[in-house]
Amino acid sequence: MAAIAMPKSSQETLAKREKIVADLQKIVPGEGVICNEIEMRPYETDALTAYRQLPLVVVLPESVDQVSRVLKYCYDNDVKVVPRGAGTSLSGGALPLEDGVLLSMMKFNRILEIDFENRAVVTQPGVTNLGITKAVEYEGFYYAPDPSSQIACSIGGNIAENSGGVHSLKYGLTTNNLLGLEIVLITGEVIRLGGKHLDCEGYDLLALLTGSEGLLAVVTEVTVRVLQKPETARAALIGFPTSEQAGKCVADIIAAGIIPGGMELMDKLAISAAEDFVNAGYPLDVDALMIVELDGPEAEVDDLLQRVSTIAEQNGSSYLRVSQSEEERNTFWAGRKAAFPAVGRISPDYLCMDGTIPRAALPQVLQDMQELSKKHGLRVANVFHAGDGNLHPLILYDANKPGELAAAEAFGADILRLCVRVGGVLTGEHGVGIEKRDLMPEMFTEDDLKQQQRIKCAFDEKQLLNPGKVFPVLHRCAELGIMHVHQGQLPFPDIPRF
Q: EC number(s) on record (predicted)?
């Protein structure tokens, strides 16, 4: 197991564990508090399984009042809190702390209201992403963001990471489909942001909370936008002799003013793994496979498919197959969405990276990644949300072989540095967590990071919510110039204040 630097454990908190557990059991009675070591094991990691740590205690509240009282108790007693959804985070965002309460929101698993007139759903944060679509599909509606883990990931976790999916190119990430939140602050205060209305006055705190990775508040209720399914949707499988040709085709399609519902790219290693796993009918004699989905009125879809086919031919495509039924279209996507677990069949372990680049840089980045693969001596299977430049390289390694995990981590860090170097960013949808935390200075200056941390201080002055994530060095709020009272006196009491 790799070693990472996390906040130093509070020996005072550890010494008071029995009392903390007993106090929390009074707030969340019955089976709502898990303190047995064996029973806490399922919570010791998230989907970044290279890192493991048992929490101080696991708490599963069932009501907003319980969440509020737990957080206020932790605030009053200086106990750290790590919010957790379904635990599918690939960046270590839900990694527990030895001296922290792991606050699982998975008992908040009910859809509260379906409002077709306003095209909105009000749901609790533990409902799965796919569960929202299942609840509204009988009227021809669906929830657009669709991460590959949508069968398991929770909508609360999607908000924490601003998750996307294969259809985010046209329909946006979580932030583009989120209307309102109910959140609980570390002090126990319950506030609401947004709602079913189009917009609201004041600062856009709704956007600020989306992607905040559990550092600012705990989500207890969510209002999302749902959409009507398009009249027609058809997908095309397009194969290329090289990944560089496929990358150029992606850029040319967008440059032509065509915005597909989804546009994904897989390299030869990922194609082979996915085909063996799902039998989606993917061609195995191509080096790169693109899935392009067009949706809308039938005549428009037919025209766009013809234009995409022409662009693909101009870029040297060697294979083209268009779905002829809804079942076939879903099969095309089933292979792509199973690519991550499918790679587990060809490697005992892998790191799933997440970076975003300008689309035009895709051919060069693909070439450079192959050079990095040779440098680090590890294979990489590439899966991309190609239309919006979101890369998901899967670095294959064997944790049982000494040094391979460290090599995989170094390889991943080099890929993320490459993304930043070509004008991209460290993450597209998986978040920073612990995985990319120490790479933040590659993208942000010290002043940039301090300004972001001032926002953290405004919400969580004691820095109890999910510490050790996102920021490589977490400054004390006093160091960042926050106004505070000491022994009943504000700084510079002689200065008039209004």
A: 1.-.-.-
Domain(s) of CATH 3.30.70.2740: residues in the chain: 347-439
Q: What is the DSSP string of 59-109?
A: E---SHHHHHHHHHHHHHTT-EEEEESSS--SSSTT---TTEEEEE-TT--
Evaluate whether the domain defined by 11-104 bears CATH number 1.10.10.10.
no
Query: Taking each helix axis from N to C terminus, what angle separates 243-255 and 298-314, rounded to the nearest 10 degrees?
Result: 130
Phi/psi for 465 (5° steps) reads: -85, 115
CA 271 to chain CA centroid, Å, is 23
User: What fold is seen in the domain 111-228?
Assistant: 3.30.465
Using the Cα atoms of residue 377, residue 383, residue 389 and residue 391 in order, give the sign of their dihedral: negative
Q: What does 19-44 look like in DSSP terms, one character per residue?
A: HHHHHHHHHS-TTSEE--HHHHGGGS
CA 343 – CA 46 distance, rounded (Å): 18
- Tokens standing for 106? 């998975």
Return residue ranges of the chain for CATH 3.30.43.10.
11-104
Write out pLDDT tens, residues 361-409.
988 898 899 999 999 999 999 998 888 889 999 999 999 999 999 999 9
Q: Are strands 111-115 and 80-84 parallel, antiparallel or unpaired?
A: unpaired
Integer angstrom CA distances of residue 145 from 167, 341, 363:
6, 20, 26
Tell me if the domain spanning 347-439 has CATH number 3.40.50.740.
no
Residues of the chain with CATH 3.30.465.10: 111-228
Q: How many CB atoms lie within 10 A of CB 256?
A: 13
Looking up tokens 């990489």, which residue turns up? 380
**Closest to 69 in 3D by CA, of 35, 103, 92, 41:** 103
CB-CB contact of 91 with 430 (8 Å): yes
Considering the segment(s) 232-341 as one domain, its CATH architecture is 2-Layer Sandwich (3.30)
471 beta partners: none
Strand-pair partners of 218:
184
110 Rama class: left (phi>0) / alpha (psi -120 to 50) / beta:
beta
Per-residue pLDDT, averaged over 94-111, amounts to 97
- 243 vs 229, more confident: 229
